[in-house]
Amino acid sequence: MKILIVEDEQDMLNSITAYLAREGYVCEIATTFIEADEKLYLNEYDCLILDITLPGGNGLDLLEKLKAKKNHTGAIIISAKNSIDDKIKGLNLGADDYLPKPFHLSELNARVNALLRRLKFEGSNNIEVGNLKIDLDQRIACVEKKALILNRKEYELLLFFVSNKNRVVKKTSLTEHLWGDSIYQVDSYDFLYSQIKNLRKKLTEGGCKADIQTVYGIGYKFISE
Amino acid sequence: MKLLHITTLRILILIFSAVSIWSAYFYFSLQNEINENIDEYLDNRKFEIIRKAKKDPSSYSGLPQTDSKVEAIEKQEFDNAKEKHQDIEVFEQLEKEYEPYRQLETVFAEGGKYFKLTVRASMMDKEELMKTIFYDVLLLYVILFSLIIFLNRVILQKLWKPFYSTLEKLQNYRLDKDAIIYFETSRIQEFRNLNDTVSRLINNNYQAYQQQKQFIENASHEIQTPLAIASGKLELFMQHPNLSSEHADIIQSVNKNLERLSSLNKSLLLLSKIDNNQFPERTVIQLDDFIRKLTEEFEQFAEYKKIRINLRIEEKSTISANKDLVEILFRNLIKNAIYHNLPEGFVHIKVLKDKVIIENSGKELQEGTEALFNRFVKDSVRTESLGLGLSIVRSIADLHNYTVSYQEKNGIHTIIIDF
After folding, report:
1. Angle at B54 between CA B50 and CA B59, to 5 degrees
2. Could you tell me the pTM of the whole model?
């Protein structure tokens, strides 16, 4: 899988690249409009991660060019502007997702994973991790063909963990993913913990080999061999 | 008290005193004049009588006449006596009442004998005159008063009109809503000056206000990127395979503060965007469904906190509003209601026609309720809260012209959103 990351902040770019590279993706980078334009012209990518404000031009123009080529590159817009206008424009131009800055790397990773799954595995939309199998269309998680009974949030939680498996996921990343914007989710960590405890219990009882570990005070880690 | 009324009252008092003093002066000077006249007449009478008496002594020894009397007196009395004019009251037999008279008493000697002479003149005419003058003055009062009231009603009111128009415009002015204020032009220099000065003042304030708003927004934007980078790096660092618990503690602490800074930044950005009116789009929202969905989202959280959350829809209605903002508004309020609750407490949400009422149990309030909507006012016990939630609610409500009222009574907190 090849991803082009277009972002003018070098530090930000490095972080995204480092995080996604661990997932096994091939990451290429561009820091200016012209560089990105060139790379998009010369190569074909599975996914484009695009900042809107770029030196030399607007990221939305790149998106327009890309979509004119009618290939199957997925596009995720990352924008510091967080303006609804940009979001609507971007999605209208054919972007698949929009992530306002600042975001958690784990969230970006989960979205990239979800996007690539949607684009590349059209027939069987399943994820398998060890003996755990998640049917994304029917939103069912099974362990050895036996369905786990999960509520909506537990299912979303599991999916997020699976997308970021073997990674430390911050508590805030999880609360934001589950309950939306974190502006005031300050005391939701205990609540999150209780949800994770339930999920963990259901996984263990279902005979799932993967486990959710607590990583000190920072967050949680979904471990599968 | 209104300026016009005060002006009128002052003028009235002034005119009243001036006319009163003048009337008194006029009265006394007139009285003096009349007395002098009567005294002159009495002197003439006296001279007449004495002259007559010298010619014909029998004239004074006879019957006393109506206006004069001559009595014989001793020498001693004659020596002590002095001529005097005085006002007296005389009982009139015919009218059976006292009437005012002017009287002259004098003495004279004739042929070795001594006499006292008293001459009187009726002052009936003078009384009549005073009465007439009194009524005339009264008439003067009435005319003056009517003139002054007319002056107030018509002239002053017209003169002050530009002032009142300016005042009204200022009263309705809001720095966050109106940009520039236009005043009527006036021919009166003072009012023109006033308008110019106020315009300049407002303009300066408006500029400062805009700059401040812009500054907050720009600052929040600029802070976003370094924050995102720092927290990204930290997220990467967390992935380090040989993380010790000591390192994790430090990471956790840095992370916590970064997140705090980040949500502070997000809130400020949201506030400034609301204030800068950057949410112009409006959609029609089915209020009951909207609130029901939001409430459902909080059900698990409430259950976890052992708080009963209860939704009652009394009437279905729609509102036209910015959906994202209204969602933030209700999310904040419901979250607050759960968050600032007591163990085993309750949250009642009622949806009425143009109203949503959120009621919850909680601690009794220490401070005033109005301050809660100000920025950075927070419960001192919970330091992790930002203190921006309710000011965001207030800003969103202001933007949509909703009224938010809050009250607390015996530990029951009630918030009413009136659309």
Report:
1. 75
2. 0.66
Secondary element (H or E) of residue B25: helix B3-55
User: Is residue B269 within 8 Å of B221, Cβ to Cβ?
Assistant: yes
Tokens 């131009």 appear where? A93
Question: How far apart (Å, rounded) are the C-alpha atoms in residues B66 and B46?
Answer: 14
pLDDT in tens, B110-151: 777 888 888 888 877 667 777 888 888 889 889 988 988 888
Kindly state the tokens that stand for B182: 């236009």
Structure-block tokens of residue A5: 């990351």
Give chain A's residues under pLDDT 50.
182-183
For the segment B152-157, the average pLDDT, to the nearest whole number, is: 84
Tokens of B49: 């009588």
| C-alpha–C-alpha distance, residues B316 and B287, integer Å | 7
- Do A80 and B225 make contact, defined as CB atoms within 8 angstroms? yes
Instruction: Pick the closest to residue A183 from A110, A102, A80 (CA basis).
Output: A102
The complex's ipTM works out to: 0.83
What contacts B137, CB < 8 A, 6 or more positions away? B19, B23, B26
DSSP structure class, residue B401: T
pLDDT digits (tens, 9 = 90+) for B227-285: 889 999 999 999 888 888 899 899 989 988 888 888 888 888 888 888 877 788 889 99
- B314 close to B379: Cβ distance less than 8 angstroms: no
Interface probe for A, chosen from B221, B235, B323 (most Cβ of A below 10 Å), is B235
**Would you call B335 and A184 a contact, using CB atoms and an 8 Å cutoff?**
yes
In a mutational test of the B interface, the residue from A9, A216, A221 whose CB has the highest number of chain B CBs within 10 Å is A216
- Beta strands A74-79 and A47-51: pairing type? parallel
**Once rounded to an integer, what is the mean pLDDT over residues B58-77?**
71
CA gyration radius, chain A: 18
Buried b (16+ CB within 10 A) or exposed e, B332-367: bbbbbbbbbbeeebbbbbbbbeebbbbbbbbeebee
Look over chain B and give the mean of its residue pLDDT values, rounded to a whole number: 84
Tokens of B72: 């014989």
User: How does DSSP classify residue B164?
Assistant: H
Give the integer Cα–Cα distance in Å for B330 and B327: 5
Cα A105 to chain centroid, rounded: 8
